[in-house]
Amino acid sequence: MAYAARKRLAELLEDAEREGDFSTRAEVPADALRIRVDGVGELPLPLRAPVARKLITQARQARFGRGAETLSDTGVRDTWEITPDRITLSGPDWDRALGDVLDGVRHALGLPPTTALRAEPHALLVYGKGQFFLPHQDSEKDDSMVGTLVVSLPSHHSGGELVVEHAGRSVTHRASRHQLTFVAFYADCRHEVRPVTSGYRVTLTMNLLAERVRPTDEDAGGPLADLAHCLTEHFTAPAEQQYSYGPPETTPPNRLVYLLDHEYTQRGLDWDRLKGADATRAARLRQAAGQAGCEAVLALAEVQETWDAVPPYEHYDHYGEVEHFDDCEDDECEGECLLDPDGEPGAERRRSGDFSDYELNDLIEDEINLGWWTRPDGTGGERISLPVAYAEVCATTENKDLTPYRSEYEGYMGNYGNTLDRWYRRAAVVLWPRQRSFAARAQADSEGALRELQGHLDAGALDQALTLARSLAPFWGQYGSGEATAPHFADALRVAVGLGEADTAAMLVAPFRVEALAEEHAPDLARAAGRYGRAWARGAVGGWYGTVGAYTSADRTAWLESLPALCTALRAADGDGEAVATPLVESAWQATRQQLANWLGVGREKERQAGLARLGAPLAHILQAADSGTADTIVTTLRGLPDTALECLIPALRAAGRQPRAIPEGAPAIGAFQALAGHCEERLTRVVARPVRAADDWSLSPAGACGSGCDLCPDLDAFLSSRSRKVLEWPLAQARRQHIHSRIDLAGLPVSHTTRRQGRPYTLVLTKTDAVFSREREARVRAETDLAWLRENGPARQSG
């Protein structure tokens, strides 16, 4: 039912196409205009070649815009330009003639009768033989600019046609040799000036500005009952899914996004400056929205589509195989002309360009995002980020019938067919029921929603704030604050405390991750825990740790540095700060404990040492933040780890030693660090006291069984454990050699492994290296250095 409503609505608005076009033309007698140019004087019309050449002497090479840049490239735009400050327009009938033309342009382009057009001179352009301007799109140079007016001065020339295209249609305009030729078109239309073949083409370009002349008549237009009925049906029927799999939706969509045909800038997006059929359709929708109890805003949409596409030069036989490529000169070619530089068969590199002549087969995927919209009260606009669901989209003109601003084609890659990605910029009318206005806008602007909720709380409107906050539940986890920064978390937390309803408060703070928490949030965190209880606080902390986000280990490490100060502030705050501090520390310890176990299992020494050393500072911060019970539990666990854990514990003690003031006097962490230092001193003393390896002792610890029950690992361990055997020559097939390679590399053993490729099978040669001795010497030096530091600078010595 919902799809039927959107389809019917698009059909009802289709006839608006007849009420305006994207380009129009008019001619006026040449004597209506007198045009004077500094350095040349008044131009006699029609223009002759000597006057045109004199204009060129006063002109500069014309430039063009690309993004934020202004460029000069005769390969793109080759023409001469005179700026408007050097041009004077006059004539006894000029103002009247221009006014009549602008009235006709407004009607022909379908602009609403509530606006008037004004033309502002932009430049005088001179095109000589061979000069041109490649297809481009004009920038809107003023908030009220809607289009461009090109006035061609009469002259004897050929070529230089102005071609304007929009939505798959194009119009070619040729200038009169005897009259002024006016061509107007919307600013988002792509257009070009083809090369002049003889003579000189001289034009005056003007910006078309739209200004409101009287208020909009909200009651104007024909019957709107059908449109209003479609809106009501759309907002009451369950939203349908784009694909058939998955459980059906039971709730109706929150909004309707009707895509308009033209492009607009943020500055130019206004109900009174819509173009052509857009103006009529938007006005009808706005009126129907009023009848259906809906609000309407204008928005800017970014659209991407991925199509299964066929290049125009490919032909297929009835089996679907490529028969021939029309632009390849080799009659025997079977697709080799599309090979990539490495000669991969059937692969074509991704490339950008104009693919308007490609045949589109099936739409594979599409994505629409709103990036800007106006406010319902008409007081301006705001930047947003809102993905649009399939069940919310409606359009009379399909995307594929418009000209994309960018296209990328990727040829056949083996696992899927040829794909063509196309990007569009479209405006949209976005509607939602008034009673759902808060939720509809909150999906795009979570920060604004939180401000509004806080405003109701500050005004004492608790029931209204609760009702609005509850309406966020269906989407807040997906569209809410997500990876929001600390200020957004502060807003959500403050509102959560003020609502007084545990479930709704938990929903509001759930989308954040733990990295958003800071010392400044401690008072509100403690109040929330005091108001909603310890189970609520533990659940919230678990959600912050478990929220999937694009954080890195560096994000978490940086946040852990602030954990001691946060926990200190929590315990000092009114409420129940300990209810938040305890699960924060416990969750941090569990995550770090898992990382610690992972690194202890790594056999490659340098890799393991680096990983464990990186955990030192986070471990120190966790101990600094812990209460006495948690600190004792952590130390007990650490004391039970193997000697390799010293590669983490010593860096942790060093990190604590660098920040003695981070531990308040009498804090549980002092005893924890002293106990940990004593444990490390015992372990290091034993390491240093071990006998030095004998010069003939080549024994190594066994690599252990691989778990697959193979017959190779026991023989490998026997070789490793031998004091005297330094070399093992082992005839093995390739797969068995690879197994031994992986066992040695995984364990990081000081054993080289090479293959002697003689005989069958080849012989694997294992050789114990001098690292058997050098590693042990380096470990002893490290232990002696760490033990000396610990005895002189460890936490036990700093406690006083």
Automatic annotation (TrEMBL):
InterPro entries: Oxoglu/Fe-dep_dioxygenase_dom (IPR005123), Pro_4_hyd_alph_FE2OG_OXY (IPR044862). Residues 112-215 form the Fe2OG dioxygenase domain. Coiled coil: none annotated. Pfam families: 2OG-FeII_Oxy_3 (PF13640). It comes from the Bacteria. PANTHER family: FE2OG DIOXYGENASE DOMAIN-CONTAINING PROTEIN, MYND-TYPE DOMAIN-CONTAINING PROTEIN. This is 2OG-Fe(II) oxygenase. It comes from Streptomyces spongiicola.
